[in-house]
Amino acid sequence: MGRFENVADLAAIAPESVALDLACGQGRTTRALLAAGPRLVHAVDVGAALDDDLLLDPRVRAHIAELDTLPLADGSVDAAVSLNAVEHLADVGAHLHEVHRVLRPGGTAVLAHSDWDTALFTSDDDALTRELLDRFVAHVPARGASTDGFAGRKLLRHAAASPFTVESVHSWADPHRRFDEGSVAWKVATGILAAAGDEPGLAARAAGWVEGLRRAARTGTFLFAVTDVAVVLRK
Ligand SMILES: C[S@@+](CC[C@H](N)C(=O)[O-])C[C@H]1O[C@@H](n2cnc3c(N)ncnc32)[C@H](O)[C@@H]1O
């Protein structure tokens, strides 16, 4: 099982229930939630990136909305997942209050995030990997004051300040051996390149580093992993 299946599993989706994917992006968590057999998945994101087949799926309702003003009625959702969203939010507390409002009493929320500082890349140049990663975790795309590359390890703080009861805490690191366009490792490496981009010398070395990752992937020696943290919350 990978990250998306893990969070869907923790959400314990009951057949015929109503689920909520918060910051759905292209819909990878939405797909994992659908596999558990809910009646409906609300897929919410401020952008419009949801894959076309999910937009056409009668079990999916897509909403363009902010995570602190959800267009859903009080108590209308059985289970919600917020995966890799909080690093983008200026006010995580407002997000969790909204999730609490739309969940039914007894409902489950899974608050999950990768902890980017734990990212592992197989590279010929460990020192450069460290340098690039340090820069990346200090430059995760910023939209709010809470943005940082250590988001996973801080989830419990957000949970403790929310109206939820913490039920359990989980962590894992999925191994990824692909490094082609669209792969998880590629996406993270793209962020690392962007973070190095405003320093010309480092940007050139980062481009060489990515070439090295490509070579490793071609010979089957590439590995990427990052620790994900998930907190299961009960209303
Ligand atoms: C890193 S992606 C995660 C997507 C998905 N949850 C996943 O794990 O594949 C972050 C998503 O958060 C969305 N987002 C950022 N700020 C948001 C906000 N204030 N309200 C709703 N969505 C937001 C972005 O549009 C993006 O799709």
Automatic annotation (TrEMBL):
Entry GO MF terms: methyltransferase activity
InterPro entries found in the cross-reference section: Diverse_substrate_MTase, Methyltransf_11, SAM-dependent_MTases_sf
GO-annotated biological processes: methylation
Keywords: Methyltransferase, Transferase
Pfam families in alphabetical order: Methyltransf_11
Domain Methyltransferase type: 20-110
Origin superkingdom: Bacteria
Key word Cell inner membrane present: no
Family, similarity comment: Belongs to the methyltransferase superfamily.
Name of this chain's protein: Methyltransferase domain-containing protein
